[in-house]
Amino acid sequence: MRIHPTAIIEDGAEVDPSVTIGPYSIVESGAVIGPECRIESCARIYGNTRMGAHNRVCHGVTLGAEPQDLSFTPERATPLVIGDHNHFKEGVNISCGIKSEQGTRIGDHNFWMAFSHAGHDAQVGDHNILANGATLAGHVTVEDHCFVSGQVAVHQFARIGAYAMIAGVTGVSQDVPPYALADGHRARFVGLNVVGLRRGGFDQAQRSRIKAVYRLVFRSGLRLAEALVRAEREHPGPETEHIVRFIQSSRRGLISLG
Fold it and tell me: What residues form the membrane-spanning segments (predicted)?
């Protein structure tokens, strides 16, 4: 273990011997840090944090911090659980949980740019990018392979579907469905995230299927339930199934067509 002499590792912290910890960082009692993690300067890992392997935590990051929730008391805290190969740039702040037993969860291979934030009980999957200042409120769900641009604010309980992209300075108050491109002062559906889909290996047939499903959802004039039934019947496939299930499980409703 390579620990700078100014770092503070409290008794009761579980730190793998392969971990590097830089100057003036603090790891609280109860925190768990897995193999080959790199904690740089002035970071703070709170006691409710459980971190996997090969994560990089840059200067000034706070992980597992107290939620910005007026009802919070320390005895109600639930964990922040982080997977493997995540990169947290300078000033990132992620809260522990409070309202759910599972707490806040971050998957694998996510890239959090400077000063991005996730609130309590947020659920973030794998291979997502959050640009500078992107903010996820409490209970937000981000699936996999999403791109959340700079200064985006996502309302509590809203969901971002897989392979979606949110344009910069967008306010997201409702669910953004999978594969979508959303933009606007209040997020609107403005098309498919074509670049993300191509990078993700979606071929022309898959992209065409997704486009046809959203044409039914947004442009057919059908009631939403009827459009989803037709989508499953006329355009069967895993992408259609993902879109239909996502929409059917929405609690806040979908963003509207831009």
Answer: none
